[in-house]
Amino acid sequence: MPDQTAPTRWDAALALDTRRVGRPLWHYESVASTMPLAHDLARDGAPDGTVILAEEQTAGRGRRGRAWVAPRGGAILCSTICRPPLHPDGLFLLVAAFGVGLCWGIERATGLRPQIKWPNDLLLDGRKLAGVLCESRLGGDGLAHAVVGFGLNVNLGPDDLPAPTPGALPPTSLALALGAAVERRDLLRAILIGIDEAYALIWEGQTETLREEWESRLAGRGERVRVETDGGPRVGEFIGVDADGALLLTIGGRTERILVGDVVLGPRRTTPDELAEKI
Amino acid sequence: MAQNGNGSSGDGATEGLPSGLTGEVRALIEMMSRGGIAELSLQTAAVKLRLRTRDGMIGVGGGTSQVAVAAVDAAVDAEEPEGVIVPAPMLGTFYRAPGPGEPAFVDVGEEIAVGQTIGIIEAMKIMNEIAAESSGTLVEFLVESGQPVEYGQPLLRLMPAPA
């Protein structure tokens, strides 16, 4: 990566007293993307909880290679190397830990109360505040390591945010919601502590506590939502998640379990199913 | 997985089948008998099987496996493909490439090394890279990119290099 700058170690400067997350914390001015860098370090044996933080990503990416654009200094962009005691099928708990930990940190630092869009992203007032991305590497013995990355919109103004695309949630930032800029170092510290606490629940075997906390923060729970699935849209009451993290949707008195899908919140079109119900 | 044993159940219809299969084949024949099914094909990564009645009708008399077996001409084509199967380590959607429009991690005919990424399984928005547990030449993919896979489902077949 020719555009990668040399890192400096930040955990001491932040006075981080976490158990795992951010020990160490490597800060880069510029990297292509924190995700492949974190995978490389994980393969070289970097410890559980190592965080790669970048001021700027020149080739940031989201799920399935989607571009993630953020102007320099306006967001918190980082990836964390995790080696949790989880079977691959339980990795949703890792995503849950990062969602819950981000919520805790943001609440403590700003007073704002974000929600989680099942299963991973953070919302504020129905707008996308942060994207969370989890990638794991599986071998013969199960999980070799996982990397969880997130991009949190902090001090981005209306002109810095990407234009809303059809079908996607409109973006927002903490500064927009608060009407004032946020001190990023204090916020970063609060977030890493929050994630460390939530991640510790996995290590301490308190996964049900974590799952319940995650479920309580899911946007649209208890409401009628549409879920876009490979088999078409499903509309029903979002009653919660099961022990495997699957979304539970009650449709016409029957509960469906959804493992892959996009929850659509807010104004929406009437589906043929709904029309049929009304008729 | 099919075995290459020479065991035989002793009855005519299933004679010569791999020993581990005979019970399952009898169960299939019985199912055909009960359901009045004239022809049944089954293919997995390990075995390919075709069962067909002799005249399109199955005797349903006693309903036991013996009766059903006697009534069926088990045109069986059982085989065990050579090589090593790489199974899905979890449930999800299998992808051959890291993203749409990007080159596949590996292609048929390519030499695969231990630990090399052979694909991704996505579940709950988590992208899980699947690493090869053994080395060899990639013979074939057994699932399509974008296809849902179950735990343990064969993903691809490798041919190990001769010792």
From TrEMBL, chain A:
EC no. given is: 6.3.4.15
Return the InterPro entries for the record: aa-tRNA-synth_II/BPL/LPL, Biotin_CoA_COase_ligase, BPL_C, BPL_LPL_catalytic, Transcriptional_repressor_C
One of the Pfam families matching this protein, by short name: BPL_C
Q: Which organism is it from?
A: uncultured Thermomicrobiales bacterium
Q: Name one GO cellular component term.
A: cytoplasm
Designated name of the protein: biotin--[biotin carboxyl-carrier protein] ligase
What keywords sit in the KW lines? ATP-binding, Biotin, Ligase, Nucleotide-binding
Superkingdom to which the source organism belongs: Bacteria
Q: Which reaction does it catalyse?
A: biotin + L-lysyl-[protein] + ATP = N(6)-biotinyl-L-lysyl-[protein] + AMP + diphosphate + H(+)
Q: What is the lineage of its organism?
A: Bacteria, Pseudomonadati, Thermomicrobiota, Thermomicrobia, Thermomicrobiales
* BPL/LPL catalytic domain boundaries: 24-203
**MF-aspect GO terms:** ATP binding; biotin--[biotin carboxyl-carrier protein] ligase activity
Keyword Nucleotide-binding among record annotations: yes
